[in-house]
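REQUEST FORM: STRUCTURE PREDICTION
Request ID: SP-0412
Submitted by: Lab K.M.
Chain count: 1
Length (residues): 340
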Amino acid sequence: MSDTQEIHNYPFDSIINFKKSGHSFSYKIIKEGTYPNKSLLAYTLPPNKYRIPDDYMVETTWGRSNNRCVVQCFINYIDNKPVFQIWFGKCFEHVVSSVRSATDVTNLFHKEYTSLKKTKTSGIYLFGLHLKTLEMAREGKQRAHILKPIDQCGNFTLTKRAMSIGKHILAEFNEKTQKLYNLEDVPALESICYSVNKKHTFNISYENEDKTKKKQKLESIVRALDEGNIPRDSYRRLCAIEYNLPREGEISKERININEIMVQLIPITIVDINTKSQVDESEGVDIDDESITQEVINAVGKGGYRNINNILYYLVPNLVQKGILNPDQPIINLRISGDG
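STATUS: Completed
RESULT:
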């Protein structure tokens, strides 16, 4: 375990307490600051090489009883270079500054104020440049500034972000459960749900996906949409309300897949109605009125049909297997109705 600790509830509480063997500091973050562009960003000296923020202000407290000290530290980039300031005194009425480094201005402060006290410390600790909490907060705000708003993101970006969140939460869950549960217990994170701007909802499932059940569910939804004549836009609005429903893109892919399979099992024959030779003459004629026939020919031109024999070749074995048809009774009575 590391011998350093940062105890805080930042950014909800501006106080960050830092503890290390032999050192204890309390930081009140007044201005978090930001990191300048890479071309301007300055660093502390090796080996640590901490990044130096701009527009940064912190009130630092350290020492005990009579040796207790409180100062306010500022860092501002002037002419593209960081300027370090330490304000001290009962009302912070005194100031020392340096353009060289945090350590240099801290040495000036010790000469002015703490030369008789045993409270000397490094410039890194005095300015809190080592605090990982602030480093992460600044980086997070920089990324948030660069990232596109969710309303401008495509499905790929939204999925990628959700997966990243899911992985981080799962890793933290696994780490915490090892400390909170007996070794014989097997806690499992099954799913999480979160929303963005209260209108984009994301549901992440950690269970192993049953592909067979998922396919059956997609097929059932395709059937329900087709039988109910529900358009794509209506289904999308439904998905926005009920996040457990598969996305419309998945439904469209499954519908295309079903159509491709059916084309192979029961081919669609393209008919040029102006050329009667393509029509199966063995099939009976349903319309005897030549004027109606000619009107249909002139209006349609081309069409498509599935042979009833192919349909029966596909349906009958399945119906026999289910016990709906009796193979000992070879006569099947059909009723064709509707517009299909």
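NOTES: Residues 155-180 form the longest helix (26 residues).
Reviewed by: T.R.
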